[in-house]
Structure formats: structure tokens, C-alpha cells
Design a protein that fits this description.
Strand content: 25-35%
Radius of gyration: 22 Å
Structural class: alpha+beta
Distance between the termini: 36 Å
Order of helices and strands: EEHEEEEEEEEEEEHEEEEEEEHEEHEHEE
Helix content: 10-25%
Largest sheet: 8 strands, mixed
Number of strands: 25
């Protein structure tokens, strides 16, 4: 059996997939990858489904050794250098890795969360439909805790075939302010409070983790107190406690809360937001619910189109071995039939 042995890693290195759905009514939030687009890219580069489990690294990298057989790996998300046995691997490129090889991932030069995917993903038993580690309940992964030196992750049996792959066109997130839909309790804030949120610059503080990011900046005025009957919280909820300074709640958040939520970050901008480091500046802009739905659909199309942006790596090196490994014919045109037919 092929395995990944952890020699070293950062303290918030966890196994994450697309998340755990259907349990929020029991008080368990989704968990899952903080940046789902980056997770999808890493997985597609090694031939997995977009939401398959990968190793999520937060700022700090790590060192892992492939044991028992070969593997194919890819890294996406935060700008972390990767090398295999000392040989650098270009960003957003998969690599075939021999048994005994060492993967070294450096600390992020930009961004926060990076994802290391392996072909076939990890042979770890799901808990409540997901292998994602939920840090505050201690479920998922190997034992419900972050990875550490000495952990060994078994890989699913998977034949390593075909050429290495690369992402030909990395989809860049939309620049500008982080877009939000006001509510669900924006009526509990003074108009000047809403204007403060949408006109001010905030900063990500050091109090930032998978549960949420606390911001610093101008205080947001409530209309009449800051306590409400506890109600549901979603990923991206912008909660404003009595301090008047917002907290953005994320994948490991609590599922209900008693502070009013002035706005919710649209799904299309969540990946961009979570990649902001402590000290980063952020502004918010309001969009309508209809605009948020359109943005979500556009984001889903962008993720679905990632597959068409993946191609064999090193196209500039077309030796005979590589040519034999590529499908150069694609769909041939049968002139007599007046349309395309599969090449034989």
C-alpha cells in the first residue's frame, strides 16, 4: 500500500474535502476546505473529483515521504514552493513521485491555505459522510486532530498513468471589495452602521482561524442593542457583537449565535477572503440577492471549466515518448459523413 508519511508540518495542517453537509441542525458545521476553488484545482491536476480529500496547509509547509509505491501529487492555493527530492516543481503542475521520494513544501509567500492532492485521494474512513477534520469537535481525518510528525496517511489504490499535467490558465478571482448581501439582521443596525461597513477599510487581525476572522477598524453602530434570539449562521456571516467590530464566520463556525449579522459574504468571494493574511486590508461592497445568485452560478461555471484548462505539462518538450502518451487526434472529421467521429 502506498502511504504519505508526515515528517514535519505546520500546526494547522489538516485533511479536508468538500465538507460535511446535513448536520448543522445538530450543531455541527460543515468543515471542509477553506478555499474550495484551490481544492478543486489540486484535485483535478491529479485526476480526482474536485471535492476529494486533500491536505490543507495553513501558511506553513511541511515535509512528507512517499512510501510503499509511487504517487502523483499536485499543490494549489497559497503560493508555496514545492520540491521533490530537491527538484523544484512549477506551480499548479502535477508530478509523478517515486517511492522513497521526499516532498518539501515551503511556507507560503502569499496567501494562507494551500492544498496537496494525491491521485486516488486518501484511504481514510469518512465520519458523517466526510473525512474533513472539524477541530472543535475532534472528528474527521485520522483521529480528529491536525496532522503531526509521525502520522501516516494511506492512499487509495490508484494506477499512475499518463503524463504530468498543468493548469494552462489559472482563474484569477475578481479584484476589488469583498461582495456581501446585507442581512439577515441588517435592520438591527443604524443606517450609519451599514454605511460604516460599506465605506470603511478593515484589517484582518491575528485572531483568525478556520472558525472565523476577527477584523479591526471603525465600529459599526447597532440600532437598539446587540442581543438577538440565537438563530442560524452560515459560512461568510458577518457578525457584529457588542464591541461593534465585525467577525466573519467561516467553515468551522458555530451553527447558531445570538449576535446580529449585518451581512453575508457571497460564495464567489469566500475563497479570496480566506486567503487574506492577518494585517491585510479589506473593504466590503453590497450586492443584491439576485446579483449574488448570478455570481454563484458564474463561480460554479468557472469551477466546472477548470477541467478544460488542464493540459499535459511541458508541451514545449515533444519527444517521441511524450507524443505517444498524448491523444493528438482528438476527434477526427469524417468528410463523407459530414461530421466528427471518434478517431480509432
Amino acid at each position: 500500500m502506498t502511504r504519505l508519511a508526515v515528517k514535519s508540518c505546520g500546526m494547522l495542517t489538516t485533511l479536508q474535502d468538500g465538507g460535511r453537509s446535513g448536520y448543522q441542525r445538530y450543531g455541527l458545521s460543515n468543515a471542509g476546505a477553506m478555499d474550495r476553488t484551490a481544492l478543486a484545482i489540486a484535485n483535478l491536476l491529479v485526476g480526482n473529483k474536485p471535492d476529494a480529500a486533500a491536505i490543507e496547509l495553513a501558511v506553513f509547509g511541511g515535509e512528507l515521504v512517499v512510501e510503499g509505491g509511487e504517487a502523483r501529487v499536485a499543490l494549489a492555493g497559497a503560493d508555496c514552493p514545492l520540491d521533490i527530492d530537491g527538484a523544484p516543481v512549477p506551480a499548479l503542475t502535477s508530478r509523478r513521485v517515486a517511492a522513497g521520494s521526499t516532498l518539501r513544501i515551503g511556507a507560503a509567500r502569499a496567501g494562507v491555505f494551500a492544498y496537496l492532492a494525491v491521485a486516488g485521494s486518501f484511504d481514510v474512513a469518512p465520519m458523517l459522510g466526510s473525512v474533513s477534520v472539524h477541530l472543535r469537535t475532534g472528528i474527521g481525518g485520522l483521529d480528529g486532530t491536525p496532522l503531526k510528525a509521525g502520522d501516516v496517511l494511506p492512499l487509495r489504490s490508484h494506477r499512475i498513468e499518463g503524463p504530468d499535467l498543468e493548469l494552462a490558465a489559472n482563474p484569477e478571482p475578481a479584484p476589488g471589495p469583498i461582495r456581501v448581501v446585507l442581512g439577515p439582521q441588517d435592520d438591527l443596525f443604524a443606517q450609519v452602521g451599514i454605511e460604516t461597513l460599506l465605506s470603511s477599510e478593515y484589517q484582518i487581525t491575528a485572531e483568525a482561524d478556520r472558525m472565523g476572522y476577527r477584523l479591526s477598524g471603525p465600529k459599526i453602530a447597532h440600532a437598539d442593542g446587540f442581543n438577538i434570539v440565537s438563530d442560524g449562521i452560515v459560512t461568510g456571516s458577518v457578525q457584529v457583537p457588542g464591541t461593534g467590530v465585525p467577525i466573519v464566520l467561516l467553515t468551522d463556525r458555530q451553527t447558531t449565535g445570538g449576535y446580529p449579522k449585518i451581512a453575508t459574504i457571497v460564495r464567489a468571494d469566500l475563497g479570496r477572503f480566506v486567503q487574506l493574511r492577518p494585517g491585510s486590508k479589506v473593504r466590503f461592497a453590497a450586492v443584491t440577492l439576485q446579483e449574488a445568485v448570478a455570481l454563484a452560478r458564474s463561480d460554479a461555471r468557472r469551477t466546472a471549466s477548470l477541467m478544460t484548462a488542464i493540459r499535459p505539462a511541458n508541451l514545449d518538450r515533444l519527444d517521441s515518448a511524450r507524443l505517444l502518451g498524448l491523444n493528438l487526434a482528438g476527434e477526427a472529421v469524417d468528410a463523407s459523413a459530414g461530421g466528427p467521429s471518434k478517431a480509432s
